[in-house]
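Reading a protein record of the kind used here takes little practice once its layout is understood. An example of such a record is reproduced below.
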Amino acid sequence: MAILSACQTISPNQGLNANPGRETQTAARTTATQKAPEKKISLSFYTPFYTRADQMLSLEKEGKFADALRLYVEQKAHFATPSDRDKAALQALGDHFNATFKPRLTHDLNALATLHWPAPEAQWPAFGKALRDSADLLKTYNANPLLKRAAYRDPQTDRLQARTDALRAALKADFAARFAARPIVRLASLFQNYPLKTSARDFFEGAPDALKTKLSKASPEDVLSVADAFARDDFTPAQWTWLGMTYLHGKLGRGKPTLDHLLAALDNAKKAGFTISSVPDVKIDFAEVTSPTLLKNGQIDFSAEVKIDLPFNTAKTNVEKALGDKSDLLIIFNVAQAKARRKVRGLKKRSSTFLSGKTHDPNPAWEDARFKVIEAQSNLNATRNQTTANSYSSGYQSSASIFLNSLAGLVSTVVQDKALKTAQKTLKETPRFIDTPIYSKYQYEIARVDAQKIMTVRYYIIDRLDKRYFKSTFDVSENRTFHIAYNVNDADPQKKSVLSNNDVEKTVTDWEDSPITVALSDLIADYRKHEAESRPLPSETALRRAITKDRNTALARAKGGDVKSHVTADARFDSVVEVFTGSGTLGSGFYIAPDIVLTNWHVVENHKFVEMKTYQGRETFGKVVNKDVRLDLAAIRVQDRGKPVRFFHGKTLELGSPVEVIGHPEGLAFSITRGIISSLREHASINLPGGGGKDVLYIQTDAPINHGNSGGPLFLGDRVIGVNTWGVGKNISEGLNFSIHYSEIETFLRDTFPNMKF
């Protein structure tokens, strides 16, 4: 007879039938995994006459196999080392559940036995279904806690697991080959239809070269079809970038593309969803050729900058290097005008106050504190007097009364003494006088300033891809309104608020000095819009000539508006030029023939082209045609013709003779200084000290020669006797300067221009 505890709950019959089929499996899964009720199946205690095995057998007899399985779970520790009766109960329970799974196990094993890989794609759905069914069955079977134990497990389960694993391994091993053999347009369907579900991202990450190999010879359309067929997240960022670049290169084809072709390909890539961060095969150089004179004279208020909004390899360089480089596109900027202007449209006064002073007034609190000290002192004196009086009348009182009166007097004295000290401390901490601030009214101004920046830029686009160049001009105007607070008093308590709510002068000047930005895409769009106006790419010299002509036009315009006074100079100044290099070096030079300028080697060094400016203000350029490092001389063939100097041809120079130097000391253009011939000296080359051959003959003079004078002429009257070259630093000695002797110059010129007369 079954003995039930008072807390035992008997569930409705949830036994599983033995009919094969998916319904039986589902019922078993539901029973095995359903949520246990709050009350346990286990009894509160068991006896030798009614054990756990007895309860399990009783539940099985009643067909309550789900409750029997719950009992096994609750008493798992007990059944871990089962007795013979326990084993019988557990075996009966295992046989029941195995019987429910038996039909499906047999069915799925037979289904897998009929499938052989590799198989045609038409059979892939059957493989997929068999794998899903077996996986589902095994998951449900393994969810049964009793059937996990080997003693109660159906051997067919392990055979099903082994066959499933073998098929999955074969499918996994074959996927890469299937991917390689699959037509590009059907790659996405491979991931969708393959019996073994494979994540595209996992596959691409695990076999990163598979995609590249597949698309190495694909057309842009094939690349685009792959990008469209998969989700964006199926690719790693690096793979997506590679897809975009592969698509772009496919669109560009072989060889150097034209600019139109390149931009069209970039536009197509953008529409396809690719982000092209760089096009490494295309290089764009930027060079600015703004007149050094305009820059030096402050006639260019701000610069122009190009915003690189196209994924090209760009570099900023000087025009000499840029013209000699092999960039695909060269953009040359010549800022003809960059002016910042202000107009004060109104000046409004605002009223405020400022701290103008303080008054030194008596502090009422100090008087109150002093009165409290007097009052406390009076109270203390009165208490002491009362205590003394009580002591005189002690003869008429009992001993107890005398003690109590003395004690009361002592306590009162202590209290009053403490009150006095507190009052004294308050008086000491209270200032006798207080400073009262005095605020006075005043007015500050708020000026409305309408600021404007106007820029005219002549620019050249040298397109080496199309072997054409384009010259154009654009005007840029920026406007901004400022409200500037003037004359705000430093003592105004609202000063910080006033300044934070308005502009200050520095805000305006910073805006005026900041460059105007032009987008590269806008420049190229302007070029493409006017492409019909472009011309065949000329020689480098012709380009330089056109650029210089534009600079002189801007220079003439700026000079026409210059109201500064001019000085007159003798004819010798017409032969002298300023020499500039792309690296920022400034030196002097002078015409020795209508189209030849002579200067120092250390002024031009290894530059192929240099720029020059004449005394009349015209800018030109020249090409270095010969140089001698030892003598420190260089000859330049110049675009614009000039007035040549006349050389001294005498045999002797008289010491003490007055000489004059014309040059550009420390950037002060076309300055003349005077001295005398101090001596003739032979000295090692300044460029090759201790080597380079014999010493160079120099004229020593005390005429000042500073940075910027190098390469300029040393005149004796109207004749050149030397080229100014170097000097001893003023921190060492004054007036020790040296020019290359005219005999050394003649030797250099005869070697360079044997048919020229000087």
Summary: The longest strand covers residues 329-362.
